[in-house]
Amino acid sequence: MTDLRKWLAEAEAAGEAQTVEGAHWELEIGALSQVNYRRGTPKALVFDSIKDYAPGMRVLSGSVSNPRLLGSVLGLGWDNTDEDLVEKLAVKPGEWIERSGDFRAVTVADGPLLSHVDDEIDLLKFPVPRWHEGDGGRYIGTGCAVVTRDYDTGRINLGAYRMQVQDEGRSVSVNIEAGKHGAQHLRRWFEAEGRAPIAASLGHHPAYLVAAGVEVPGDVSEYDYVGAMAGAPVRTVAGLATGLPLPHDAEIAVEGWVRPDHKRPEGPFGEWTGYYSGSRDPILTIDVEKVYYRDNPILLGAPPGKPPHDYSYMRTVMKSAIITDSLRKTGLPGLRGVWAHEAGGGRSLLIVAIEQRYAGHARQAAYLTSQLPSAAYMNRFTVVVDHDVNPRDLGEVVWAMCGRTDPSIDIEVMKRTWGSRVDPLTLPGAVAFNSRAVIDACRPFERLGDFPAVAESSPDLVASVSRRWPEVLG
């Protein structure tokens, strides 16, 4: 399941991949990718014959941008709709976590990734795009999986952190938010050794992008998570410089070391919030010792930006499923649905639907959701609605807020919560706290019996007239 080229062949056969010839790495690949995300049904775009590069040196974007693509990446088949994915993923992320121990990654001696091993570093031999007009450079790591190791336990983590080419291709910076598992690993290595090993896969099956881009628990390796997703252990090769494991069938990878005092100015970069972040602040930069790549390698791009963007659909679907599973495990009763809206990048706007059982139930659901480990990072609004409201329909959610929320008593603000440097409201140099509002858009519990009825036809009546006059439905 985890070979990118086999998956691309399947995508082409399914009519879900499109080849683009002759685009320039300077902005054109990024602009075409944006246009793709915003059409009715995005496709996986394969850029070939890129300006200044030989045919066969390719860039892929849009790999998880619609339900058929994402379903195939998750091992759920090619014939999925939004509704299918929501239903299938209701329990899958929890199962993948629970079964990850049965699918431990296996280290092998060789693989396609080792076809070429360079000691002289030139990352610009690959067609690295400058994705957005305001970007401060060329970003080789957008759909990447950055590999770090826990100093004390040896557990491997994969994280999706942006990586900008530095020093005319001889090094690369890696921008890791402070609360992420990768940052915790590096800090511990710095304390113990003064430097930390690090590696990154830069082209691979999109399953690694999914695993690296969502909140997998700290005691589970994303390699094992992908193995559970695929139904078979993934195979890795040990890096020759650090020993860190890399997907044996990855397209491009780098490895080396980071030191706390080795930094380069980085950014700005168009981020998932829909705004540029970064102000040329110095960021940890990798002393790259080895570069690995296959013949005619494919760089996996997943550039963010104003939603919808490359992976906003994937994050929305996956985060919704993971938060649903986490809420169920808390024992919260009456849970009817969760949706991490794409407009909020799958993080900032969370909607939870419940069937109210007791006084305080709605606030409990709101506070639990806003502080779950899988939901807390960069959340800004958590809205709880009754079970008659579809959490995926923003029109219904706002309608519920307008008729069931009394701002004076139903909106509460939590302060000094987990924010981010990419938040457009975070001032340069400030500690990255944020605040978040929990909004109770449920009927008041004490008025469930006498709250005004909703003015719409009953489901039975709608079904009856639809059967008699089907032409009205087209």
UniProtKB/TrEMBL annotation:
<dbReference type="InterPro" id="IPR049381">
    <property type="entry name" value="UbiD-like_C"/>
</dbReference>
<keyword id="KW-0456">Lyase</keyword>
<dbReference type="InterPro" id="IPR002830">
    <property type="entry name" value="UbiD"/>
</dbReference>
<dbReference type="Pfam" id="PF01977">
    <property type="entry name" value="UbiD"/>
</dbReference>
<dbReference type="Pfam" id="PF20696">
    <property type="entry name" value="UbiD_C"/>
</dbReference>
<feature type="domain" description="3-octaprenyl-4-hydroxybenzoate carboxy-lyase-like C-terminal">
    <location>
        <begin position="313"/>
        <end position="441"/>
    </location>
</feature>
<protein>
    <submittedName>
        <fullName>UbiD family decarboxylase</fullName>
        <ecNumber>4.1.1.-</ecNumber>
    </submittedName>
</protein>
<feature type="domain" description="3-octaprenyl-4-hydroxybenzoate carboxy-lyase-like Rift-related">
    <location>
        <begin position="109"/>
        <end position="307"/>
    </location>
</feature>
<dbReference type="Pfam" id="PF20695">
    <property type="entry name" value="UbiD_N"/>
</dbReference>
<dbReference type="InterPro" id="IPR049383">
    <property type="entry name" value="UbiD-like_N"/>
</dbReference>
<dbReference type="GO" id="GO:0016829">
    <property type="term" value="F:lyase activity"/>
</dbReference>
<dbReference type="InterPro" id="IPR048304">
    <property type="entry name" value="UbiD_Rift_dom"/>
</dbReference>
<feature type="domain" description="3-octaprenyl-4-hydroxybenzoate carboxy-lyase-like N-terminal">
    <location>
        <begin position="10"/>
        <end position="89"/>
    </location>
</feature>
